[in-house]
Amino acid sequence: MHDQTSEHAPPRAPAARRATPTSPSSSRMFASYLAGIEELLDAQRRNAALREALDLPCIAVALADPRLRCTVEQVKTWCEDWIRPPGAERDAHGLDYERLGRNIIERVTQPTATEAVPMRALRRLQLRRHARVPLYGFPAWRGQVLPPRDAEALQMCTALLEAARRWYARSAVHEAVVQENLARLAVLR
User: Fold this and answer.
1) Is 96 helix (H, G, I), strand (E, B) or coil?
2) What is the DSSP letter of 35?
3) Using an 8 Å Cβ cutoff, are 56 and 164 in contact?
4) Does residue 164 have a pLDDT over 90?
5) Is 127 exposed, middle or buried (CB count within 10 Å of its CB: 0-12, 13-18, 19+)?
């Protein structure tokens, strides 16, 4: 005899698709940009390193935006979230986080930097896509005794490098928009 219950049974609902978590991705281009700043510090080109490092918040904000745009408010928020440890006015080495934040905001609001897409900074990032990331041990510039101005530039660079690494490792590596933008920059010429 026929089993009528199987013939007239309602169709099964498709199994719910599980959202598969994306596996963390490493960006050689981003890592190379950070290594380039460290190379400038090793070569004692602190002003050039600081110029590159001060662009890191704009780069991070632009990478997190689908249209690669960056506003002063977004940069301020990124700086508050990633640069200064919670509740710290200064760190153990005397870095003034408020001053660092002001330097970054001044850079973002300069007349030459008013574009919504930070093209120069993203272009410098893009140019690092084929550079090899050197393996570093203990950087020579970390143990140096420097004049106050150079020491401050070094501290600012270090704080920005650490913030960018924290941002990438804790947030950007898992954000699809950031990964898509990095991929777009890697193939654009």
Assistant:
1) strand
2) H
3) yes
4) yes
5) middle
The tokens for 15 are 């199994």
φ, ψ of residue 107 to 5 degrees: the values are -65, -40
Rounded to two decimals, the pTM is: 0.74
Query: CA-based angle 126:130:132, to the nearest 5?
Result: 120
Beta bridge partners of 96: 90
Per-residue confidence (pLDDT) for residue 18, from 0 to 100 = 36
Query: CA dist 42 to 33, 64, 80, 86, 138, Å?
Result: 14, 30, 28, 30, 11
Residues of the chain by 3-state class (helix, strand, coil), percent to 5: 60, 0, 40
**What is the rounded distance in angstroms from the CA atom of residue 44 to the CA atom of residue 157?**
12
Residue ranges covered by each domain of the chain: 26-133+145-187
Instruction: Find residue 175's DSSP bridge partners.
Output: none
Tell me how far apart the alpha carbons of residues 54 and 51 are, in angstroms, rounded to a whole number.
Answer: 5
Alpha-carbon span 132 to 127, nearest angstrom: 12
Contact 52, 81 (CB under 8 A): no
The token pair at 46 is: 């602190």
Residues contacting residue 65 through CB under 8 Å, at least 6 positions apart: 74, 177, 181
Cβ proximity of 55 and 121 under 8 Å: yes
Which tokens is 35 given?
């290594």
Tokens standing for 6?
């199987």
Residue 11 has pLDDT above 90, yes or no: no
